[in-house]
């Protein structure tokens, strides 16, 4: 269970998040929505530890994450798929995947072949350098890499960006599958409303750094308020 | 002023610190001793130490600082010729007094500078004579660092050797950059050059940092002093203390002083140095002796003139004589160079030199060498009526601007 | 700068690509690709990840040299240029503008300065040195700023923008550049559905004066563009036609859309 | 870099440049006050500036101009030249050659045509590349052309081949190193290791007279002011923004249609000429030019001045050059045996605590203050100052010369 | 047998010493003690004559005394002129009586004085001793003696060589002796002797042979060239053949020099290939890390003066630790604040480099420190007489390759290597993958610094161990890394070797200074062709970072 309490985050002097509250439960998908520049990525960075919380706190399974470095969060089972992929350009695909070993005990340091059935292209390109992949291939690699961490909290920042429709569908089913296994809390940033509506158990909507709406996923598709908030 | 100020202008950092720091300490030791004796003219001496950091323009700047800001009465300093060249205009402009304690290429004489190191005729020529006459060397390698001192010295030597009937094919000249560290090819070439069945020697004007790798390579390629002796003009006890001399026994150096010289003055000097540095392994060397002589001459001249005033001291300096550390007396000549004995030593296992040859008496330093056509007719004489650093004895004129103002 | 040996094309296309191949260490990213874009045409390009869409743009803009093939660009003055001979700056100056897949703006210039730099003309050193912002140009910049909704971020450093804002800024820069041919790689990524539609509208307006080549994976966006669609797969054209036809193509469904 | 575009090219120079205006004011005051006080006031007077101080300041001013030259290419265009000392030295040699020729027959060997070192090397006539240097105008032209042409040829090659980043840095270093070795050689005809020295006069005025020194000082101030204005003119123009774009993302600038290699070449040549002028003014004031000026370490030091002052602000380059050199002068005199600790410490502390250099101090303090305020409002949970946040917060201080991965698109 | 042989030989020798001012009556041979005692007051010329006489004495102690004289271990007590043997340390407490070999106690350093030798005396002594050793039991001594004879074939008796040859069982030594004989044969007045000599010299690579042949050819007068045409031509072809062989060997030697120089550059650069190549830190303090390694070697030798041979083996890990730890401290203290700002690492590490230089100057003095070369690294091994390769360089070539291989293994085959690369490519993301970035950074910098320290151990064998050591290598190191292609270990290897060999190709053509300039120009031009170094990384991965 992830709890975010009255979180403020700033970039130097300019504040990007105000008083954000949210939570994400294991076995559920929590969607974060909002237009460009409202602070979604900022929130994800705060969750993954790349930005420090100015005020307020983030708790994961009852323990505060304040001041905990990203690698310790990873070791506590928090995996992050950043917007913009951030794959290791000069490592091969295989090596990119192996970086996840750092957070795993020795016995679990192997690449689960399940990953390849989900993203077959990765298996074809194991020896190619990550940076040489196409945009969509890189996005797939970023997701695969996060999954290898065997996370308990999976943070996905616009994971479908640049991915071909058929694979988006696959990703959708994977997310459902992971949720249904009930071992993982998933936080999903998504602009593509249909996709979000299909997956969301809970949602929040941000507007200029503040949470302006929240509710159950089932309401999302029909919510007029949501539509307005996401309009221009 | 209530003190007499002594400027110390030696690099304490950068590439030359390795050599010059010792001279700074020598001056400080001399000052300390003089003060123990009650100072000079009843005043205490005060040393002003600055660090020109092996940076040549900085030498000029620091000289100006010493003379204008600190108002020192005398400066002991410089090692490389280029640093001296950089300082020269400043001491001349501000009428300072510089004591320069290192062997150099000559071709200079300034009213404001006293040269207490060797001129080429006090080091290079006698060394070559020794090798030619006593060792029977017939083939010569002149190896040097590519800058003015080696170039000039080698030019003089080349001309001298040719005048002695050495053929051009029996002279090999080789230059390397400053700090050259890969000597494989050159040592191998020397080896080849020396294996023609004729006695061959290397005259080394290699300077500074390049020496250690050079000698290490000599040792490694097994060039022994018995086969091809190397005589160096820039390698003294201090340089030797930086490496293992066992494989180098027998190679030579020519200086005006060796630490191993017998004599009361030398023993006393060494003792004083050991107690000053609190290290009884510290060695002494030729530029230290030159500093010692210069300092003693200066104090004597100040006493003689009754003032530390530069112009008066300048006049009083000429003709002053003080004991050498190797015995006998050093005399300051009219050309601001010394008369000193020349010694040749062989490297011993313990890093000392064994003196194997020395001149009968003292050799007067010649500012303008007789072995080059351009300077053959030049002399320097800082006494009336000539009063000129580069007086042409043929045209009877004082050339250039070093003329007395 | 016109082509040395004019290979004359009767119905001059803005962009004529024939048999273009590129390989990286043996991997064929483009495989004998041919395509023609007519003046004022808007063309949507879709295709699986790794199909070679971005590589194609690299080849057109001079970033990557093709191994074989011709790429001919016809400018407004109707002269033809073999793009494979030019470098990036030349191609840009001929009238080809590009938006990158990964948003790329000049991070330590402000939003305004980014746009100012993109404005058409004044590429030479002297012009840049003596450049003066005329009222007309200033007006144009303001219009663009409004259009991309960044007027309030005008003096913000571009590096401080969010992902989507950078996308918009890049589109704005393309507008400022007024190229004859626009190559746009995944403009809708990271935009909300509304914004996506707005972008589609914008492009449709542009298409009257310019030629556009738009790469996207968002089918709603493609549909909104309402134009001819080319499907790339493994470096060459798999299908071409209206969206409806290509969507019905079983091969396209197989490799791209999924069932 | 805000709101400057509404103004014409000349008016914009000093708008938004409060620091620059102050700097120019100080320089102008110096140009008047220092020579006058040196020449007119008696030595004991409190306001008297000694020739030593004036000459020293003159030297710093030359260094400051050199720093501006480096900042122009490094701070604004991302070209890290580790060989800029070469251009400085070439300018210096051009001036030195003129000064040598002025000696005439007053050399030690009294040869009216040849400098002493040539007489000594048995040269019988002046080598062709020394011809013309007896003319002041020609020498001054060479002060600009010698560095300029070298920079042009070198830059044209390197920029056309798209040599960037550390590769460029290293070949500039190779360039200056090669020149160092070449100038050491006596055969080159530039006086070998000793270089050119023992100058007598310039334009007929004795270099040892205080009047001449005062004039040289004023000339240095003027050159610095002019150099500052020229650089300012460049960086505040649109060209300046193109340079920043190139620094940030060279290939993005290309795709926008800017011919990156031309722009780089232009600033590189301008910068080399500024450096040459600095060298030319430096030589008569310090009295010697020798190959040591080509030493790679010297060029690195210039970079250090700029970094200490604050890269990417012309004003910072000036401050940095002055500060570091003053520190050096002071430390080498006052702490002759320990000064390297102090200078080294100064550099380390600057990087740690003044990420934008000395001129960034003010901005830094302001920001710190605001953060504090912010924190106080936030009451608890002081943010752990982590480097990611810091660098995210100020992308302009991130170096786009991403050495390992090449530049970013 | 042995002593008899010696007597014959020296008797012959003595005849050649025409007048001998010190010679006693020929009948009453002076004793060893008497002769030795005279050494104290003799000048160098007289010492040489005394030595010859001593060599004649049938007493093994005679050779011991000559050897001691040669090694500067022969001393005497100042006040009673007792002759002493002192060990090579020169300490008075090791003194023994030269004849009885009884230890002599109670002497101070100032009480004893060495009996000096100079070069010519050393030459004479060595030849006396080595000639005696021509019949030594040890092959190496006989070989040395034979080679020594080669140098002085002029003043040896033919019968002596013939006898020695007869007794010689070892082929190598016999070969040399044959050459000695052949050289003598050249001087013969019998044609077939000379022809035999010439044939025996065929293919001999000793420089003395070339000198002998050269002289032989020069001595032909114009008419002899005609009258003894065959002989003349034979001599000439023999000489040209030899010279051809020699010049081939010269090329091989030069290549070796190039590789050896390359190995030095490689060692100096490998550490930088990590701190700069992998981490992107413009590490101006790299040279000082090398320097620290060299000083560590010095300290290790101070701590174990009795085991110089072992000291280098100990120094390698010690230097790795010292430099590595300093590296870790620098990283934790300074560099870690500067990630994302590579250019500022230049400023900071430059400052650190100044501090370290001064620190060493303050602690160890500005003078160079003496680092001894262990026995096993000294000298050359002879492939043939025209090609002798130095041991130390060979070790350094091997050592540098080992270090490189080890490092490549760590980088490519271990998780730590993967983490290192990941962290430098994208620090925040690496952290999110669970990599302790701070830890990895510190260890990586420590590794690079530690390797620089190891380089210092090797360099201490070649060059100055002083405060400027680092400055001498920093520029070359950067050149190598950049020339090879930043971030590519192979590039560093090939880059270092290319520059080393290029330098050695240019050097014979143009001299050391111009060669260096040419190498620099070569680098500049090469980079135009390959703007990202020899082994450039290509593709999107680089452009899009
Ligand atoms: N490094 C930064 N420095 C300063 N401001 C920033 C920085 N990064 C983002 N911002 C600002 O913070 C706000 C929130 O940005 P964030 O990236 O969180 O938006 P987002 O919701 O993820 O948008 P998008 O949908 O475009 O990705 C934006 O207004 C942006 O301009
Ligand atoms: N430098 C390179 N080295 C190796 N392979 C490369 C390189 N550049 C591109 N590729 C490969 O070429 C193929 C085409 O890539 P491209 O980026 O053009 O695809 P795309 O159609 O744009 O895909 P996406 O929709 O994911 O952006 C991919 O499989 C990619 O991995
Ligand atoms: N004078 C010298 N040794 O440079
Ligand atoms: Mg975002
Ligand atoms: Mg793509």
From TrEMBL, chain A:
GO molecular function terms attached to this record: ATP binding
Keywords: Amino-acid transport, ATP-binding, Nucleotide-binding, Transport
Listed InterPro entries: AAA+_ATPase, ABC_transporter-like_ATP-bd, ABC_transptr_urea_ATP-bd_UrtE, BCAA_Transport_ATP-bd_LivF, P-loop_NTPase
Matches recorded under CDD domains: ABC_TM1139_LivF_branched (cd03224)
Residues covered by the ABC transporter domain: 2-232
PANTHER family, per the entry: HIGH-AFFINITY BRANCHED-CHAIN AMINO ACID TRANSPORT ATP-BINDING PROTEIN, HIGH-AFFINITY BRANCHED-CHAIN AMINO ACID TRANSPORT ATP-BINDING PROTEIN LIVF
Family affiliation: Belongs to the ABC transporter superfamily.
The protein's name in its UniProt record: Urea ABC transporter ATP-binding subunit UrtE
Gene from which the chain derives: urtE
UniProtKB/TrEMBL annotation, chain C:
Residues passing through the membrane, by range: none
GO molecular function term, any single one: ATP binding
InterPro entries: ABC_AA/LPS_Transport, ABC_transporter-like_ATP-bd, ABC_transptr_urea_ATP-bd_UrtD, BCA_ABC_TP_C, P-loop_NTPase
Protein's UniProt name: Urea ABC transporter ATP-binding protein UrtD
Sorted UniProt keywords: ATP-binding, Nucleotide-binding, Transport
Domain of life: Bacteria
Domain ABC transporter, residue spans: 15-259
Highest classification ranks of the organism: Bacteria, Pseudomonadati, Pseudomonadota, Gammaproteobacteria, Oceanospirillales
Pfam family, one: BCA_ABC_TP_C
Keyword Transport in annotation: yes
UniProt entry tagged with the keyword Transcription regulation: no
SUPFAM superfamilies in the cross-refs: P-loop containing nucleoside triphosphate hydrolases
UniProtKB/TrEMBL annotation, chain D:
Signal peptide: none
InterPro entries (UniProt xref): ABC_transp_permease, ABC_transptr_urea_perm_UrtC, LivM-like
Highest rank taxon of the organism: Bacteria
Keyword Endoplasmic reticulum: no
Pfam families: BPD_transp_2 (PF02653)
Stretches for region Disordered: 372-409
Membrane topology type: Multi-pass membrane protein
Compartment annotation: Cell inner membrane
Residue ranges of the TM segments: 23-41, 61-90, 136-159, 166-184, 214-235, 263-282, 302-326, 338-355
Keyword terms, alphabetized: Cell membrane, Membrane, Transmembrane, Transmembrane helix
Chief localization: membrane
PANTHER family for the chain: HIGH-AFFINITY BRANCHED-CHAIN AMINO ACID TRANSPORT SYSTEM PERMEASE, SLR1201 PROTEIN
NCBIfam families, A to Z: urea_trans_UrtC (TIGR03408)
Protein name: Urea ABC transporter permease subunit UrtC
Gene: urtC
UniProtKB/TrEMBL annotation, chain E:
Compartment annotation: Cell inner membrane
The keyword Transport is assigned to this record: yes
Residues annotated as transmembrane: 255-282, 310-330, 394-416, 437-458, 478-502, 509-527
Membrane topology according to the record: Multi-pass membrane protein
Pfam families: BPD_transp_2
Signal peptide start and end residues: 1-23
Domain of life: Bacteria
Xref: CDD domains: TM_PBP1_LivH_like (cd06582)
Alphabetical UniProt keywords: Amino-acid transport, Cell membrane, Membrane, Signal, Transmembrane, Transmembrane helix, Transport
Family: Belongs to the binding-protein-dependent transport system permease family. LivHM subfamily.
Record's protein name: Urea ABC transporter permease subunit UrtB
Organism: Thalassolituus hydrocarboniclasticus
Organism phylogeny: Bacteria, Pseudomonadati, Pseudomonadota, Gammaproteobacteria, Oceanospirillales
